[in-house]
Amino acid sequence: MTNTVVLGMQWGDEGKGKIVDLICPAFDAVARYQGGHNAGHTVKFADRHFALHFLPSGILHGDARCYLGNGMVIYPEAFFEELDAITEAGIDAEGRLFISDRAQVILDLHARLDQAREAARGADKIGTTARGIGPAYETKAARVGLRIGDLSGTDLESRVEQLMDHVGPQLRGLSATAEAELPTVAELVARCRGWAERLEPFVRDTTKELNDLIDHGGSVLFEGAQGALLDLDHGTFPYVTSSSATAGGVAIGTGVAPTRLTGVLGVIKAYTTRVGAGPFVTELHDEVGSHLAKRGNEFGTSTGRPRRCGWFDAVAARYSRRLNGVDAMAVTKLDVMDELEEIQVCTGYEIDGEIRTDFPARISDLMSAKPVYETVPGWQQDTVGTLAVAELPQAARDYLALLQDLVGAPVGLISTGPRREETLVVDSEATRRILGGKLDEVIAGRGA
Ligand code: GDP
Ligand code: IMO
Ligand code: MG
43: CA distance to ligand 1 center in Å? Predict the structure, then answer.
């Protein structure tokens, strides 16, 4: 049994999409367990380029069945748009793409609420993706949200009324124009019925399907969106997303019990980035930061916003390794550091004159923390597309060994370019276990 979780260890955009696309031929199914179209996963191979938001990154490579789990929040319009785009690109998703009947529905009013709340916060805004993710999880927790299965239910009208009674006053309180923009119950019901019809071929009890597949010896890759430090409970609250992006979220978000998960692959950038507001201890405001942003093309896949860039933060990464039980790491974007003369790695935080190596909970501590750095030499050589560890420059190997030591998990994959072909798979016990022994298949599929 191999059921591997692939998740981001930092603040998102670690390159999860690329790694999932590469390794998915080793699995029978790929399932997302949280988030919505706040995610943006870029997948590139040969001369092709895809930006995925809802669809698991396993949809493009091989024939894995793809699931959108019950822990997700789904805006049907955006789902259809993405489905049309991949169909147009010649990818056949029919019969292998499924949505949980228990996933929550995002409506336009959730997005409006998200935008109105952010505007009201002014300088304190979180910098959300403005897509209604937070409000959709709020109506779920308030037990008034609609689930995908409800869209075709006989009680739809009363459920919509209940939702409007909950959200309407909040929107009116935040926005003077809300009243005119709010749909009537009848309009919303009609829209939901239209969605239900088009969604019908995709909707399943995905919890049962995933468990049945595992019962029959199948293997599942669980694909995380966002990153551990954006997790609602464990991240830099309140500057987080509203779902459980950590490994613990898998069981809740798919209905596959923790006892069935066999390994965790943590995707981590060789430096750090963050989009939106919130503390970022190793952030660089100098020319090195601009260099990483430029060379790493650090602009959001979903919103196009520039990503903040900084040095590798081993305090945060170690915290993330512990939270997720990371068995191996996929280190991405090593090539982006190719030209640097010197590299710094944060090994501790100085807070109120004290050095701390644990990741603090309080935002005020994180905001005032000064990074303690270890400085190592850069390699100043081209690493793009390197396929063997022995061919990496010695200083790059030393850098990876340092990250491995500081974080406490072995490096299993090394990415040195955006393309599927530009990934080094380390032949080790950890990678073989994560891939269920299908290391050779993954390597063979790398150029396909
Ligand atoms: P995700 O949200 O974790 O899937 O990551 P994104 O796709 O949002 O952001 C990662 C970006 O880096 C994408 O534009 C990828 O094409 C790109 N990328 C991934 N791995 C590498 C790498 O090793 N080197 C370089 N230069 N780019 C990479
Ligand atoms: P992927 O899957 C990076 C950030 C937003 C904001 C905060 C809350 O591509 O790694 P939300 O709209 O979720 O309520 O925004 O979370 N955020 C991401 N940052 N990558 C993502 O996804 C993100 N999804 C949300 O920028 O700071
Ligand atoms: Mg992304």
Answer: 8
- H-type alpha helices, 24-132: 76-88, 108-121
Annotate 360-404 with three-state secondary structure: CCCHHHHHHCEEEEEEEECCCCCCCCCCCHHHCCHHHHHHHHHHH
**What is the pLDDT, as a whole number, of residue 300?**
82
AA identity, residue 72 = M
Tokens 């040969």 label which residue? 46
Q: Hunting for tokens 């998200």 — which residue is that?
A: 114
Calculate ∠ Cα 291-294-298, nearest 5°.
Answer: 115
- Work out which ligand 2 atom sits closest to the CA atom of 302: 9
C-alpha to C-alpha distance for 432 and 42, rounded to whole angstroms: 25
Residue from 226, 337, 287, 330 nearest 345 by CA? 337
Q: Is 13 a catalytic residue?
A: yes
pLDDT at 447: 86
Helix (H) or strand (E) segment spanning residue 136: helix 133-141
Radius of gyration of the chain (CA): 22
Q: Which residues line ligand 1 (CB under 6 A)?
A: 8, 12-18, 40-42, 44, 296-297, 301, 332-333, 335-336, 415-418
Tokens linked to 230:
């954006």
CB 277 within 8 A of CB 125: yes
Q: How many Å separate Cα 202 from the centre of its chain? A: 22
Regions in the chain scoring below 70 on pLDDT: none
Query: Which domains are delineated in the chain?
Result: 3-96+205-445 (3.90.170.10), 104-201 (1.10.300.10)
pTM over 0.90: yes
The reported pLDDT for the residue numbered 427 is: 95
Q: How far is the CA of 185 from the centre of ligand 2 (A)?
A: 31
Query: Token match 């935080």: residue?
Result: 349
One DSSP character per residue, 14-79 reads: SSHHHHHHHHGGG-SEEEE-SB-TT--EEEEETTEEEEESSS-GGGGSTT-EEEE-TTBEE-HHHH
Cβ–Cβ < 8 Å for 36, 54: yes
